[in-house]
Amino acid sequence: MLFNSYEFIFFFLPLTTAGFFALGSLSRAWSLRWLILASFFFYAWWRPLNVLLIAPSILINYALARMLQRLGRNESRRRASRVVLILGIAFNVAFLGYFKYTNFLGGAINDLFGADLILTEIILPLGISFITFQKIAFLIDVHAGRIEPFTLQEYCLFVLFFPQLIAGPIVHYREMMPQFQSAPCRFDKENIAVGVTLLLFGLFKKVVLADSIAPHVTSIYGQAAAGGSISFFLAWMAAIGFTLQIYFDFSGYSDMALGAARLFGIRLPQNFNSPLQASSIIDFWLRWHMTLTRFLTAYIYNPLVLALTRRRLTRGQPGFAGHRTTLGAFVQLMMFPTLLTMFVSGAWHGAGYLFILWGLLHGVYLTIAHAWRLVAPRFWRDRNDYARFMKPFGLVLTLVAVAVSMVLFRSSTTAAAVDLLKGMIGLNGVALPASVYKTLGPLAAWLDSLGVIRDPGNDWDFIKMTIWIPVLTFIALFCPNTLQVLARYEPALGVKPSPSDAAVAGRKIEWSPSLAWAFAASVIAGIGILSLGGKSEFLYWQF
Amino acid sequence: MDDSIVLTKETRREDVPNWDSLIYISFIVAVEIELGIKFRVADVESFANVGAIVAQIKSMPR
Fold first, then answer.
1. In terms of Cα–Cα distance, which of A474, A359, A343 is closest to A406?
2. Is A363 contained in some domain?
3. Potential cystine with A162: which of A39, A116, A199, A443 (Cβ 3.0-4.6 Å)?
């Protein structure tokens, strides 16, 4: 069930909330059971068969986790516990791998060896990538002794809780379960007001802002895939346009997830913090899809760096030493773990060369940024001086680097990506739509002399994106984000008002339960709901 | 080595100039090797200050 569909907004969500409160007056246990049932229904709506796939996987994971819990209490059985953990991770990776990567690997073998493996279409269970990561994290946490004893019902609620089921935020058991265990399960004005506001803001970001340029981005990427050579301006518009589209789409989705959870008095973790305002690529990943970064750092990057550091230091080789780090230590302790982690991130997003390249490219970006951090102080002694220059420069550089990477993320074929990247460096010529050309008068002759070409088509894509890209860029760069506006009500776990947010916003825009905000929310709701009904899916629902 | 840095039990990561997560891990591993112990990944991530590291070491079987 899509968050931006009539059936979700007018049927499923009100009914589930009402049932939750009604049962809450009887007992919390029944309220929570109702939530699990509703979540199963939510998941089954799109393809009922999916439940048959996901249910056994939940049961197997539950059994493994219980086994780990029992073994964990006994220090002498660490080895057995380790074996169970590795089996558990292998099972989940294989489960994901079968659905997600069978065809990709088959295709790769066909490419490499000219083999003739027959590829059949395997239907991807919805949200399987997110669900799998969350289950793996849970097993590792149980193994590490970080989880209190749990029941099957609690485990189901943790995995299936519908606001975060399909596309995150990726949650930890230990941040969710205490909330469920102490949720009042009663109607609460503030929770409903904050939840509904988050839902409406998120819906607006998706159906108005993201979908404003989505068709034009799709049009240009479609032309690139069909073999058309995309000229300079349109290529950049597609690259920047898609970056803005996916930001408003995915952060809009995340706002809706937070809002839906809040109706039940549950706070999910923050997933976005105005990432396009980042002044470096390191900063970007701390603000973009934050729960994925958190997952990758905690379960892949950190353990890897720890193991590698142990190996280096026991051999007597130097470890990481800030500005005095040796090249060997940098390559082994920084570059290699970063590239590997981002490779996993790329492969997790999708089975395809382009996703893997996208991940590796970000790994390269991050490596360069970390290396720069080590050497930059040699050139810039004065930190304030450096920050003054680097903040605006870093922001533009980061935005361009992200937009380039997004070409790989969005393109359906390698040829399309190559064509767009060629267009962006001017190899496909510079063109303006003929109808735009006509309005330029005397300028036209000058443009002709510069070698600008008249493009017979693409008028609407060009014009609409010329209008929307500045509007969306302004919102992404200069407006406070949803969570900053609602900060006083802790809209996401741990998000509190911060003095620096007020400075960013120029003057503080803060939500409050007032008539003015009710009016603003109604307008946003009206526009959002009128824009519903298109067949526009959230980008991250495919993963 | 910077001798001006004095560690107390209350010293936190943010108290040391130019400290970062990788230097932290090198520091932790140096402690492990010196004392012949091995921390768990979860512990390494959760140490709030030097005192927490000392407390953890004292609780570990040798």
1. A359
2. no
3. A39
- Mean pLDDT, consecutive 10-residue stretches, chain B (62 aa), reads 69 70 80 84 79 84 64
Active site residue A349: yes
A431 phi/psi in degrees, rounded to 5:
-135, 155
Containing domain of residue A73, as a range? 6-187
Beta partners for residue A433, in sequence order = A455
* C-alpha span between A228 and A416 (Å, rounded): 9
Residue in chain B lying closest to A78 (CA): B40
Q: Which of A103, A122, A134, A123 is nearest to A48 (CA)?
A: A123
The DSSP element (H or E) to which A245 belongs, if any, is: helix A232-263
Looking at the domain assignment, is residue A75 inside a domain? yes
ipTM exceeding cut-off 0.85 for this assembly = no
Half-sphere exposure in the Cβ direction for A189 (13 Å, CA): 3
Q: In angstroms, what CA-CA distances link A527 with A219, A263, A511, A521, A530?
A: 24, 22, 19, 10, 5
| Chain B touched by A369 (CB under 8 Å) | no
Number of A–B residue contacts, CB under 8 Å: 47
* Rounded distance between C-alpha atoms, residue A126 and residue B53, angstroms: 43
pLDDT in tens, A176-191: 999 998 888 888 888 9
Of B18, B22, B40, nearest to A333 by CB-CB distance is: B22
CA distance B47 to chain A (A): 14
Contact A303 B41 (CB under 8 A): yes
Q: How many separate domains does chain A show?
A: 1
